């Protein structure tokens, strides 16, 4: 059972990144506004903040169909890669257009994480602790927000706060998320069964349940 808990915790790192991203932009936009003189253009300022959520709304429409074809784990890996790329693009951003591009990329990452992390946990967890493990997603998101606010506040005390660094630090925990998704998280056994890959599903369940005979497990 401990293996399931550890895998669920590892998966919720994606939710931590959601909270992190949503909170750092709230602080970073203050400095973006100053550098690009956006005080007189509140629409553009609002677009910078909301672009990831606009993108995420669109992505969630068709992401479920893609996940049913390729699996849950590839979606988590893709989410981690998008978080890494969005942070690196933000570090390089020379203008508002590139900032918006970074926010679009992070929107893809957020959409995949917020959609598939709870689904993934539900599909790997046994019924008796499924609800408890799914509360980890919101806890991780709140934790990410808390850490991000500490970061933003700490950097705001510097003589010349860099919003590029502030918004790109997310790439560091995103690399950890990527490594966990690639090397530690198994594919959802339920998805494997839905594709007729019964032997692979049994192997995953044996790892998750720590028993050889998994015929009676869900």
UniProtKB/TrEMBL annotation:
<feature type="transmembrane region" description="Helical">
    <location>
        <begin position="133"/>
        <end position="153"/>
    </location>
</feature>
<dbReference type="GO" id="GO:0022857">
    <property type="term" value="F:transmembrane transporter activity"/>
</dbReference>
<feature type="domain" description="Major facilitator superfamily (MFS) profile">
    <location>
        <begin position="7"/>
        <end position="218"/>
    </location>
</feature>
<feature type="transmembrane region" description="Helical">
    <location>
        <begin position="98"/>
        <end position="121"/>
    </location>
</feature>
<dbReference type="GO" id="GO:0016020">
    <property type="term" value="C:membrane"/>
</dbReference>
<protein>
    <submittedName>
        <fullName>Monosaccharide-sensing protein 2-like</fullName>
    </submittedName>
</protein>
<feature type="transmembrane region" description="Helical">
    <location>
        <begin position="165"/>
        <end position="185"/>
    </location>
</feature>
<keyword id="KW-0812">Transmembrane</keyword>
<dbReference type="InterPro" id="IPR036259">
    <property type="entry name" value="MFS_trans_sf"/>
</dbReference>
<feature type="transmembrane region" description="Helical">
    <location>
        <begin position="74"/>
        <end position="92"/>
    </location>
</feature>
<dbReference type="Pfam" id="PF00083">
    <property type="entry name" value="Sugar_tr"/>
</dbReference>
<keyword id="KW-0472">Membrane</keyword>
<dbReference type="InterPro" id="IPR050814">
    <property type="entry name" value="Myo-inositol_Transporter"/>
</dbReference>
<dbReference type="InterPro" id="IPR005828">
    <property type="entry name" value="MFS_sugar_transport-like"/>
</dbReference>
<feature type="transmembrane region" description="Helical">
    <location>
        <begin position="43"/>
        <end position="62"/>
    </location>
</feature>
<comment type="similarity">
    <text>Belongs to the major facilitator superfamily. Sugar transporter (TC 2.A.1.1) family.</text>
</comment>
<keyword id="KW-0813">Transport</keyword>
<keyword id="KW-1133">Transmembrane helix</keyword>
<dbReference type="InterPro" id="IPR005829">
    <property type="entry name" value="Sugar_transporter_CS"/>
</dbReference>
<dbReference type="InterPro" id="IPR020846">
    <property type="entry name" value="MFS_dom"/>
</dbReference>
